[in-house]
Amino acid sequence: MSIKSEDLAARAAKVRLFIFDVDGVLTDGSLTYGADGETVKTFNVHDGLGIKLLQEAGIKTAIISARRTPIVLARAKDLGIEYVHQGGHDKLTPFKALLNELGLGEEQVAFIGDDVVDLPLLRRVGFAVSVPNGRKEAQQHAHYITEAAGGRGAVREACEFVLHATGNYERVMAQFLV
Ligand SMILES: [Mg+2]
């Protein structure tokens, strides 16, 4: 293991809350519109299970998205994501409120984002993640860039990284090795 990856693992080991951006991270960034407005977002089933496994490990999960749509509320409900904030480019205010509510420090938070609106969070959290299809500005401020693309398993990869680093991976996987 290289020094850089040891540093990454140490950062991820502290994570108690994982915050997800939606567009370009939990989706591939496509916004599909019909005559009545936005109708469809496509999520990834592997990402969904990754989020569930994080929750089983006792790590809290949240969504902070600049766009507002009931589609995200439906997906969050499916996955049991407790904290959802939508609307507005200011992600810092809901981020600070959430940390205050949960009594967590910035070093205990992971965030995955793909665009410039995510920079304030990427620059603050202990474990900042971006995606290969993200904007270069987001990537420049990330500690870790996933191999899988947003909407194509990036979130699963990041969740598994945290599960390994926090020592929870073997335990949550054991339920499937029956
Ligand atoms: Mg995004």
Architecture blueprint of SSEs:
Blueprint (H helix, E strand, L loop, with lengths): L2 H11 L3 E4 L11 E3 L2 E4 L4 H12 L3 E6 L4 H10 L3 E4 L5 H11 L6 E4 L6 H4 L4 E4 L5 H5 L3 E2 L8 H12 L3 H6 L4
Parallel strand pairs: 1-4, 1-6, 4-5, 6-7, 7-8
Antiparallel strand pairs: 2-3
The structure holds magnesium ion (MG).
Magnesium ion binds next to loops.
What features would you highlight for this structure?
178 residues; alpha/beta; Rossmann fold; 6-stranded parallel beta sheet; two-stranded antiparallel ribbon; 8 helices; 8 strands; binds magnesium ion; 3-deoxy-D-manno-octulosonate 8-phosphate phosphatase KdsC; CMP-NeuNAc_synthase; metal ion binding
Bound molecules: magnesium ion
Number of helices: 8
Rough shape? globular
Q: Determine the strand fraction and express it as a percent band.
A: 15-25%
- CATH class equals Alpha Beta
Stretches where pLDDT is under 50 for at least 5 consecutive residues are: none
Q: What CATH architecture label applies?
A: 3-Layer(aba) Sandwich
Strand order of the biggest β-sheet: 5-4-1-6-7-8
CATH level-four homologous superfamily name: HAD superfamily/HAD-like
Query: In total, how many domains does the architecture comprise?
Result: 1
How would a crystallographer describe the biggest sheet? 6 strands, parallel
CATH topology: Rossmann fold
Q: What is the terminal separation in angstroms?
A: 31 Å
Please tally the β strands and state the result.
Answer: 8
